[in-house]
Design brief:
CATH topology: TIM Barrel
CATH architecture: Alpha-Beta Barrel
Mean pLDDT: 98
Radius of gyration: 17 Å
Number of strands: 8
Structural class: alpha/beta
Low-confidence stretches: none
Order of helices and strands: EHEHHEHEHEHHEHEHEHH
Bound molecules: orotidine-5'-monophosphate
CATH class: Alpha Beta
């Protein structure tokens, strides 16, 4: 895979115009675009069709987390809309993840679609070690929880996980070279961290074994998004 194909830009904007503008501008320099809660809920599923018509690969990031039947049905719908990647929460459990994977596989077979990657969100990159223990009340270390959830996702038939760059090495070791690791919480050297807590630079994430990195504000809020994206790709090398 080319280095630039490993860069996914988070389109955290509220209108089709802004999303289309960024997609046209950045398509030559990045591998895919992420449609998350803000854009999806502002525009609706048609934004997936609009951006795919521009030739973009789309990660539909709705972080599904519900009972197995509900998540399976939603996963089927997102597959039919043409998602290239979709995600569910590992905290929903093995049966929920299995149901999602089976529903996606069935939809792909029934409609002759390209199979999306189905990945599990582990511990959000915005959660600090303190919040993990004291607020949410988990025992143990974040890394152990992430690795356990990654193994559970793999056993459930998922393609990979979304995890912070700080856990990539441990996941790679536990789940092998083919397992997809998508990594937000990426900040160029010296960049503002915002609400992210477990971060590294693009170069560190790739060196640790990330398959894809996800970058939003450092690109989309930059006065020159193209230059920001190109700088990140060169930091990935
Ligand atoms: O699933 C995700 O994409 C995700 C998981 C996670 O743990 N942390 C995380 O930041 N994300 C998403 O990745 C993007 C990061 O955006 P920036 O912090 O602006 O680079 C946002 O769209 C988040 O919704």
């Amino acid at each position: 895979m080319n280095t630039r194909d490993r860069l996914i830009v988070a389109l955290d904007v509220d209108s089709p115009e802004k999303a289309i503008h960024l997609t046209k501008l950045l398509s030559p320099y990045v591998g895919a675009f992420k449609v998350g809660m803000e854009l999806f809920n502002s525009v609706g599923p048609e934004i997936i069709y609009t951006l795919k018509k521009l030739g973009a690969n789309i990660f539909v990031d709705l972080k599904l987390h519900d009972i197995p039947n509900t998540v399976a049905r939603a996963s089927r719908v997102l597959t039919s809309h043409g998602a290239d990647i979709l995600n569910v929460h590992a905290a929903g459990g093995k049966e929920m993840m299995q149901s999602a994977a089976q529903a996606v596989n069935k939809e792909v077979l029934d409609k002759g679609l390209t199979r999306p990657l189905v990945v599990a969100v582990t511990v959000l990159t915005s959660i600090s070690a303190r919040a993990f223990k004291e607020e949410i009340g988990f025992a143990g270390e974040i890394e152990d929880k992430v690795v356990n959830w990654a193994k559970l996702a793999q056993a459930a038939g998922l393609d990979g996980v979304v995890a912070s760059p700080q856990e990539i090495r441990a996941i790679r070791q536990a789940c092998g070279p083919e397992f997809v690791i998508i990594t937000p919480g990426i900040r160029p050297s010296g960049g503002a961290v915002h609400d992210q807590k477990r971060v590294t630079t693009p170069g560190e994430a790739i060196a640790a074994g990330a398959t894809y990195i996800v970058v939003g504000r450092p690109i989309t809020e930059n006065s020159d998004p193209v230059q920001a994206a190109r700088n990140i790709v060169s930091e990935m090398n």
